[in-house]
């Protein structure tokens, strides 16, 4: 009887080791899954912010076009001061958002890591952006020096802004779409990774059940 118990002891020791390894594997898969989920939540918050900024950038470009058209309109002079203020504010925000979308906010430690595709799209939009900025800044400069500047002097700048708007908006739409598409891809990748860890955990649990069942069967035969 004593010899039988001694012979079974190594089996139970081996079982304990298997059980410990299985628990460690399950714990590791849970920890890794949580790390990935937390990382994804952080990225998702950043994705939402970037997509919102991209949409805002599009809206601001339309606002700039509207303001320069109003300032160039000879029948619209009574609100030139308020329109100029609105244009100046929209231009500054437009430039700030353009910077944030490409490089993030260094002062807050928020660094943007854009894909090669998005970087290429921003390169393609650079010329349109700079032309609009330069023309709008010239209009703002003239009107800040003299709000009664003849409309003819800002007409050329207005035409430049309007002529570049369609091209800028088209490319900005591509950037917004690309940001959104990449965010959706990250969501899908996370789902696949979570499915893998779930399958791994279930596989370990099933292995444990099979192992215990086999040992119990052998134990009953020995008895």
UniProtKB/TrEMBL annotation:
Residues 42-137 form the NarX-like N-terminal domain. It is a multi-pass membrane protein. The chain crosses the membrane at residues 18-37, 195-215. GO terms for cellular component: membrane. GO terms for molecular function: kinase activity. It is found in: Membrane. Keywords: Kinase, Membrane, Transferase, Transmembrane, Transmembrane helix. InterPro entries: NarX-like_N. Pfam families: PilJ. This is Multi-sensor signal transduction histidine kinase.
